Structure formats: structure tokens, C-alpha cells
Amino acid sequence: MGARDFKPTRMGAVKEAMKAFIRKKLTVDPVARIGIVAFYEYSLPIIDLTGDVKALINAVNSLRPLGRGTALGDGIVEAYCMFKDLSRDGVCKRILVVTDGTFNAGIDPRYAILPLKLHGIKIDFFTFSRLYPSDVSTIREILKTIKGRLVNVKSGDLVKAIMEFL
Question: Is 80 a domain residue?
Fold first, then answer.
């Protein structure tokens, strides 16, 4: 996340994209709820599901790189746990993974998704930078099991790209 292939840095660019996503999503769909989980060498829930734009923006602003690893599977499990109280039928449950790849820590994400499939939770991947072939393979394997999309942005404006992703 410290690389400078996006301006001002990867972390800075992704924060701006996430804040734009939050504002747009909650404007278009005011009953939607968004939660944030950070995943580095371990995963950490940052803010539980909420429609509070200010709280979500503050949570995004608090994000910092915490190590060199990327524990995607652990992050997926934490995100799944946020849905525990959301058992109502008709509620769209979706996880949006925003990552620069290199899934090299934690539990295997191909196993972490199994409860998602059982509970009809979709997963989308918004990736940026050049992914390793093993990361692309892992994502494609996940998307064969779980309904979802993959968008990879190698350069350019992450805010514009995530708005098109919406």
C-alpha cells in the first residue's frame, strides 16, 4: 500500500475512492449499510455495518498499513461476521474487497468463502495495481464459487473506476 504507482500513494488513492463510494452508495441507497474490515497480516473490523456517512469517512481516514502481509481469507471471515444479525430475507448481502493483492497471510480465502455461499452472500473484488498470476487465479476460483465481479485498475483514477464499479 505504500507504493507510489497511484497519486499520492496507493493508500491515499484507495481512501479517496472508498470515501467517494460510501457517499455515492448511501446517497443512492439510503437504507444500505456499510462496514469496513482492514486486512493486512491479520484482519481487523474497523466499523460495523452502519449508514452513518460521517462515521464511515472517519473510519476510512483512520486506515493505515499494518505490516506487509495480506490476509484476504481472514478479512472475508471478519466481513461475514458483520452479517450475523442480518438474517432478514430480501436483504442484499455483498462484500466488496478493495485490495492491491498478494494474498500471502492468514487462512486460505478459498475456504473462507464457504459460509458465504451457504448464506447467499456475494463478493466483488475491486483491485488496483498489477496482480500476481496466483492472486488472479485465487480471485477467479472464488468467483466460480460465489457470485461476484472483478475489476482490476492498473493505473489512473481510482475514484472514477470505483464509481463505474457501482
Answer: yes
Q: CB-based contacts of 57: which residues, under 8 Å, 6+ apart?
A: 19, 22, 23
pLDDT at 2 over 60: no
Question: Mean pLDDT throughout 109-128?
Answer: 87
Question: In 3D, which of 61, 141, 159, 146 has the Cα closest to residue 103?
Answer: 141
Rounded CA separation 138/158 (Å): 22
> Given a cut of 70, is residue 90 above it in pLDDT?
no
Q: What is the pLDDT of residues 130-145, one digit of tens each?
A: 788 988 899 999 999 9
Which three cell numbers mark 73? 481469507
What is the domain-level CATH number for residue 53? 3.40.50.410
Q: What's the 3-state SS for 77-138?
A: HHHHHHCCCCCCCCCCCEEEEEECCCCCCCCCHHHHCHHHHHCCCEEEEEEECCCCHHHHHH
C-alpha cell, 62: 483512520
Residues spanned by the domain of 40: 10-165
Q: What is the DSSP string of 21-36?
A: HHHHHHHH-TT--EEE
